[in-house]
Design a protein that fits this description.
InterPro entries: P-loop_NTPase, PolyP_AMP_Tfrase, PPK2-related
Catalytic activity: [phosphate](n) + ATP = [phosphate](n+1) + ADP
Keywords: ATP synthesis, Transferase
Oligomer: single chain
Number of strands: 10
Strand order of the largest sheet: 2-3-1-4-5
Strand content: 5-15%
Protein name: Polyphosphate:AMP phosphotransferase
GO molecular function: polyphosphate:AMP phosphotransferase activity
CATH superfamily of the largest domain: P-loop containing nucleotide triphosphate hydrolases
Structural class: alpha/beta
CATH architecture of the largest domain: 3-Layer(aba) Sandwich
Length: about 500
């Protein structure tokens, strides 16, 4: 695959000087409309062999483009903040907004490449890692991110000479040439070729850059960036990959419809059980083994179903230093300028901590679906994207508990009226709540589809009858305690 790239590609100084003004003009002609229109963001991944001049090429790119709308993110071994969260967390955290461009050194491919070269993972784990990366990049592409991936190549003898120069030049700084990489040149090239073959997709292509000649290298990088941004501008909306059709046929009863709303709990029994499970939760959260898991709790349900009350009973026995409650409302402008899961990845807790979501990423397949805020393809695609997000969490050792709190239409009306009549509860009822109530049947269908498509063995839904608040609160506490007791 690298045969052409291994050939000595040359460009004279004269040719470079002639091309440089034209290339700078082309880059700005592509970048400035991207900044103005804010239709998409751009990720430029710079990978390949040490000594190939990746840093020099990017420095020249900065000189040719509007640097105010460029950011360079370099990733090495994860520090504590990243090490205590799933591997993709730091890349999600740093995603650029629409109109902006981020250049990435040490991307999500680097640890996979290193681990395979040094035989820390077998071929099966390597393949699974590539599959996960393809899904991640497809999700970004569907959310209006232009992904350009560059692999810089060098013959072994040229790399050796470059590394000598880098080592000499950097002797006075804390930078050392990676001679181990040179030792594994053949394995690195073969593994890099496999990565490129298996992850070069239409939505995230690889470009192999011959790097023997610096001028040729930099022009090739700049021309590819300019052309790709221009094509994306002309292309408009990206093509979406939709989930399989929702189960069709005659009207059916869903798992949400089948919740038994008659379940109750008397006050005396409630007080006893509430104290029991709150004490148990306090003890579980203090265990040393809690540092090996992070806890993500999701609360969804009908409006006025008692999510806030259940959360208040849940956090009462917890140390405030180890939990945070996230009340999710409409996305801000900053959040709308990035893929929709971005704002939730930023809120992923470190291990040993709890993140409690009062509404969550499921709003895309509930409110955004029913109210038309998300396109048909977008919310259909979201089921798989949500499942993959939750699998990323659980594969890293997190415990994910999801609760759907259900009440009847009649009970909701009663609670709405009570909120309007009680001064300290009036802030809980809005005109939007009344509008949503008019679409009760549509929300019921959406909730049923949500549970069907996203209740997995690693992140199952717990369906809670909330007609009786005491029953619901105890059910939530008991479920969390049971899950944590099993995990810890």
């Amino acid at each position: 695959m690298f045969e052409s790239a291994r050939m000595p590609q040359k460009m004279t100084k004269k040719s470079f000087k002639k091309l440089e003004p034209e290339l700078r003009e082309a880059l700005l002609a592509a970048q400035l409309p991207v900044i103005e229109k804010q239709q998409f963001s751009t990720l430029i991944l710079v990978d390949g062999l040490d000594g190939a001049g990746k840093g020099e090429a990017v420095a020249r790119l900065y000189g040719w483009m509007d640097a105010r709308h460029l950011v360079c993110n370099a990733y090495g071994e994860p520090m504590d903040e990243a090490r205590l969260r799933p591997p993709l967390w730091r890349y999600w955290r740093d995603l650029p907004a629409k109109g902006e461009t981020a250049i990435v050194f040490g991307s999500w491919y680097q640890s996979l490449l290193r681990d395979r070269i040094y035989k820390k993972i077998d071929e099966d784990a390597f393949e699974k890692g590539l599959v996960r990366i393809r899904r991640f990049e497809e999700m970004l592409a569907n959310e209006d991110v232009l992904i350009l991936k560059f692999w810089f190549v060098l013959p072994k003898d040229v790399q050796k000479e470059r590394l000598r120069k880098i080592e000499k030049k950097s002797a006075g700084r804390h930078v050392l040439a990676d001679w181990a990489a040179l030792k594994h040149h053949k394995k690195a090239s073969e593994t890099g070729e496999k990565i490129i073959l298996e992850t070069s997709m239409g939505f995230a292509p690889w470009f192999v850059i011959p790097s023997q000649d610096p001028e040729y290298r930099d022009v090739a990088l700049g021309q590819t960036v300019a052309r790709s941004m221009q094509l994306k501008l002309e292309d408009g909306e990206p093509s979406s990959v939709a989930a399989p059709p929702v189960v069709g046929g005659l009207k059916r009863e869903t798992a949400v419809d089948a919740i038994d709303l008659t379940e109750t709990l008397e006050k005396t029994e409630y007080e006893k059980l509430r104290k029991k499970y709150q004490d148990q939760l306090s003890e579980l959260s203090d265990r040393k083994s809690m540092t090996k898991t992070g806890v993500v709790l999701v609360f969804q349900g009908n409006d006025a179903a008692g999510k806030g009350g259940a959360i208040r009973r849940l956090i009462r026995p917890l140390d405030p230093r180890i939990y945070k409650v996230h009340s999710i409302s409409a996305p801000t402008d900053e959040e709308k300028a990035r893929p929709y899961l971005w704002r939730f990845w930023r809120r992923v807790p470190r291990k040993g901590h709890f993140a409690i979501f009062d509404r969550s990423w499921y709003e895309r397949v509930l409110v955004e679906r029913v109210e038309g805020f998300a396109g048909h393809d977008d919310w259909l695609r979201a089921y798989n994207e949500i499942n993959e997000f939750e699998q990323e969490l659980t594969d890293f050792g997190y415990t994910v508990c999801k609760f759907w709190l259900a009440i009847s239409e009649e009970e909701q009306l009663r609670r709405f009226k009570a909120r309007e009549e009680t001064v300290y509860k009036q802030h809980k009822i809005t005109d939007e709540d009344w509008r949503n109530r008019l679409k009760w049947d549509q929300y019921a269908i959406a909730a049923g589809d949500m549970v069907d498509r996203t209740s997995t063995h690693y992140a199952p839904w717990t369906l809670v009858s909330a007609e009786n608040k005491k029953h619901a609160r105890v059910k939530v506490l008991k479920t969390i305690c049971d899950r944590l007791d099993e995990v810890l």
